[in-house]
Amino acid sequence: MNTDQQPNKLRWGILSAAMIARKNWRAFSQSQYSTLVAVAAREQSKARQFVDECNAQFPILPSVEAIAGYSELLARTDVDAVYIPLPTGLRKEWILKALNAGKHVLSEKPVAISIADMDEISCAVRSSGKHFMDGVMFAHSARLSSIEKSIHVDKSVGNVRRVASHFSFKADDDFATSNIRSQSEMEPLGCLGDLGWYNVRFILSAMNWELPTHVIGRTLVGYPGGSSSNAGLVPAEFSGELFFDQGRTASVYCSFLAELQQWSHVSGDLGHLFVDDFVLPYYGSRTSYITHSPVFHVRNSDFRMEDRRQTQTCNEYSEGHPTAQEVLLFDDFSRLVLAGAPDNRWLEYAEKTQRVVDALKKSADNKNAIVYLTEPS
Questions:
Q1: Cα-atom radius of gyration of the chain, to the nearest Å?
Q2: Residues 38, 350, 95, 278: what is their CA dihedral angle, to the nearest 10 degrees?
Q3: What pLDDT, in 10s, does the model give residues 77-108?
Q4: Given its phi and psi angles, is residue 101 left (phi above 0), alpha (psi -120 to 50 degrees) or beta?
Q5: How is 31-93 classified by DSSP, letter by letter?
């Protein structure tokens, strides 16, 4: 057992050798405040393969242990926090077990398959006094902080009227039958949970964390999803409308069928803001977004549209660097825990995101009915 004490770093374990965990292995290797102690899989051989392959590319010292069984990892006294990239259908069970074992928890998203399960998790987090976050990497980027400042402090677009967000990728031909994200037992939210979670998260940030009053969701294309008794198809392509007080609106589009796009657009009464890679930054050492305040001049027969766009840049790498958003996620989490100051604000962000996603899916499963998140006046 790895017993090296590193009081300036939070000691982590990973529950599952999932693909996304490989990206976060690299984040652990570059984090100032985190160290990875062990990885657990159902079979030790799978955990060992994961550790060996990741370590060959991005070494972590001291060596990371490969463990058979998630419970065995939770029983370790040299693990302070766990990262849980298990399928959504299994997350609640292992989040609750991790909290019961005294561990802080970083969960992949969506956190749960329903708001009822999210509420159970939230209650357990608050009772435990442990820190909880979901794995939305862009929420920790310097760029999102700059975007929030542009919208809410500098008022670069004026009063926000509309937010539109699109996240899609074209899945391969076998996805519908072989990928877990098409199966209702483990991933009943389909593309809405896997991709739409990010759309909703950006929208809530742009709306200063105000929940919509009501939503309408529509599964445009769905997978049969296997033999589950869960109501409705597993979304493969989904659209949704969110309605806020004072006539403000937002739209969500997410899809496993359209080619890769990941953009968000904020419209206000003085201008608009656009970011075309809001989830995974395009490769490079800087991230950016654009603010627009176009002006239309008419002088007799002279009709002139002036662009007046400004590109805002942030000095942060897209990946593979201490400034990259996935590294900052673990740094932010670990720094809060090491300071003895778990912050329930992050739990509240996850709760609100889950509540909107749950309402959108409920609407889609009920013939696109209006679903209220607050009591109608």
A1: 21
A2: -30
A3: 999 999 999 999 999 999 999 999 999 999 99
A4: alpha
A5: -SSEEEEEEEESSHHHHHHHHHHHHHHS--SSPPEEEE-HHHHHT-TT--EEEE-S-HHHHHH
- What pLDDT does 227 receive? 43
Which residue's structure tokens are 């374990």? 13
Report the interhelical angle of 44-57 vs 19-30 (nearest 10°).
Answer: 50
Q: What is the DSSP pairing of strand 160-168 with strand 249-255?
A: parallel
Q: Which amino acid is present at 357?
A: V
Q: Where are the alpha helices (DSSP H) in 136-196?
A: 142-148, 175-178, 190-191
Distance CA 31, CA 2 (A): 19
Sheet holding 214-223, edge to edge: 309-314, 287-292, 272-275, 261-268, 160-168, 249-255, 234-243, 214-223, 371-372
Q: How far apart are the first and last CA of the chain?
A: 59
Q: Quick one: tokens of 339?
A: 């300071």
Question: What is the average pLDDT across 107-133?
Answer: 97
Q: Could you tell me which of 90, 96, 103 has the C-alpha nearest to residue 123?
A: 96
**Per-residue model confidence as pLDDT tens digits over 176-226:** 888 889 888 899 999 999 999 999 999 999 999 999 999 999 999 999 865
Q: Which of 264, 282, 308, 287 is nearest to 166 (CA)?
A: 264
Domains and CATH numbers, the chain: 10-137 (3.40.50.720), 141-322+347-372 (3.30.360.10)
121 bridge partner residues: none
pTM greater than 0.85: yes
| Per-residue model confidence as pLDDT tens digits over 277-332 | 999 999 999 999 999 988 888 888 888 888 889 999 999 999 999 999 999 999 99
